[in-house]
Amino acid sequence: MTDNVRPVVVKIIENFKSQLDASVRKQISNVQYNDLGLMIDEAIAEEIGAAAELVEEVARKLRASTRKPELEL
After folding, report:
1. What is the C-alpha separation between 48 and 29, in angstroms, rounded?
2. CB of 29 within 8 A of CB of 13?
3. Which of 22, 23, 71, 73 has the smallest number of Cβ neighbours within 10 A?
4. Is residue 70 part of a domain?
């Protein structure tokens, strides 16, 4: 597994491997596991990005709905 993936991805891959029969594990190369890890990491990054956009939208709406004090003298 390469160093440029999240630790959770390593856990996912290891869990996946543990569910495979030994004969199937032998048919999958480390390069293929690395590719799978990169795909999972990319999917996680996309979901985090989408969640961040939602949070930003909510923050904008909250700021817009905040009552601004009127300073009339």
Report:
1. 29
2. no
3. 73
4. no
Q: pTM of the prediction?
A: 0.74
Contact (Cβ atoms closer than 8 angstroms) between residue 59 and residue 26 = no
Residue 2 lies in a domain: no
Q: Per-residue DSSP letters for 4-65?
A: TS-HHHHHHHHHHHHHS-HHHHHHS-HHHHHHHHHHHHHHHHHHHHHHHHHHHHHHHHHHHH
d(CA 34, CA 28): 10
User: What is the domain range of residue 27?
Assistant: 7-65
